[in-house]
Amino acid sequence: MLTVWCVVALLALLPPSQSVNPGVKVRLTQKGLEYGRQIGMAILQSKLKSIKLPDMSGKVKVSRIGKVKYSITGMKITSLGLPTTAVGLVPETGVSLSIANAFISIHGRWKVRYKFIKNRGSFDLAVRGLSITSRITLRSDETGRPTVSNANCVARVGSVKIKFHGGASWLYNLFRSKIGKALRKALEKQICPRVADAVSEMNPRLKTLNVLARVDKYAEIEYSMVAPPIITKEFINFDLKGEFYNIGKHQEPPFAATPFSLPAQHTSMLYIGLSSFTINSAGFVYNKAGILSLYITDDMIPPKSPLRLNTKTFGALIPEIAKRFPNLMMKLLVKTSSPPNITFERDNMTLRATGTVTAYAIQTNGTLAPLFILILDTSVSARAYITGVKLAGTVALNRIGLTVGTSYVGPFQVKSLENILLLVLKVAVIPQVNVRLQQGFPLPTLGKMNLVNPQLQVQKDYMLIGTDVHFEP
């Protein structure tokens, strides 16, 4: 029932769409189910307290007396307890809920009439040994979003005891047994519909799932399921697409996700595995959007640096520049020529990017005169971290490789430019890249969900996030 959906709903994102390898895997553990049980019982208890028992009336035929009329009215639940509850996973099926030794206390009014005799008072009804068993299934609605339903439910009342107050005991003893049986039947009849109502109330909440999560004005990430969930006695595994797309235009990259498996860890409520495919699909999207480029000007270089972006500095290394473009400022255009590629090894993330560096002299009339184009091969180390419910990161430059692509100022030794380009990349390009990376991208979430004490590990071909969760009211 609801005991688990506050957590499970996070994971049951969409129905299987294609038989492809997932970019993201999510695991819900028994610890996660237990958290769901704790918060779900409060919701279920509220639903059961809303049970309204109908007024009852009837006649009892008493030997040598005749018919005695009675009525029971104004019944209200005054207390309800669910002391023994448990949730479990049913392999290949879903989630089971069991409640035992529950109790309900009810207060109401009674009235009897026999000929000209009228009597009335109050009563307290004690229901003990109430048990509920239920099985809940997950499916998808017509929009591809998850929906939950109550597959079956059985409710049984153990004992019913009535204590009457006021009036003559011989009168209410006439209908005590009949009232007890009627109230038992009325309660059992209403409990399972309340369970079903509670399950159905989760469906609007499921629509808060960020199945298609906006990252920025260029990209969004899809978390649809690509295979049915794998349910064992210990956990539920969900395979999610985990792929970035250009907003409004879903084009598949020229590479596919490769299989990976989550390790046998169970200390956290939730585990999220993100493959290198997911991150590389982001590189494909941003490269295709044409935003992996940056103009570098001299004001982006630290003032104390002796190396400046002008023809005097570069002319000392390439004399033709100083000869043809004396005393001019320069501008560099750094951009990727293909999508960057990230690889995951244990405790290590490395990103490689290939691009070009085009140098311009800024002439006195503001026009740009091209000087040369360099082919740039860079390797950076990456670090990922969790901020809120987002995955963010930073990079640091490892090495660069330079070759001459085109020269408009005659031949020159490209190695002489390495120090300048290293400075430009470290003080101008890398900080700009980190500004974007620190904005992060959203992880799959449901409603007001927070991650608690998330831990991130880098494994071969994927990174693993282990975390507890907390839902705000």
Automatic annotation (TrEMBL):
Pfam families linked: LBP_BPI_CETP, LBP_BPI_CETP_C
Matches recorded under SUPFAM superfamilies: Bactericidal permeability-increasing protein, BPI (SSF55394)
Cellular-component GO terms for this entry: extracellular space
MF term (GO), any: lipid binding
Signal peptide: 1-19
Subunit structure: Monomer. Homodimer; disulfide-linked.
Keywords: Antibiotic, Antimicrobial, Disulfide bond, Glycoprotein, Immunity, Innate immunity, Secreted, Signal
GO terms under biological process: defense response to Gram-negative bacterium; innate immune response
Taxonomic classification: Eukaryota, Metazoa, Chordata, Craniata, Vertebrata
Species the sequence originates in: Anguilla japonica
Domain Lipid-binding serum glycoprotein N-terminal: 27-249
Recorded family membership: Belongs to the BPI/LBP/Plunc superfamily. BPI/LBP family.
Protein name: Bactericidal permeability-increasing protein
Its biological purpose: The cytotoxic action of BPI is limited to many species of Gram-negative bacteria; this specificity may be explained by a strong affinity of the very basic N-terminal half for the negatively charged lipopolysaccharides that are unique to the Gram-negative bacterial outer envelope.
SS bond partners: C153-C192
InterPro entries: Bactericidal_perm-incr_a/b_dom (IPR017943), BPI/LBP (IPR030675), BPI/LBP/Plunc (IPR032942), Lipid-bd_serum_glycop_C (IPR001124), Lipid-bd_serum_glycop_N (IPR017942)
UniProt domain comment: The N- and C-terminal barrels adopt an identical fold despite having only 13% of conserved residues.
This protein's record includes keyword Nucleotide-binding: no
Every Lipid-binding serum glycoprotein C-terminal domain range: 264-467
Primary location recorded for the protein, binned into one broad class: secreted
CDD domains reported for this sequence: BPI1
Residues passing through the membrane, by range: none
Location in the cell: Secreted
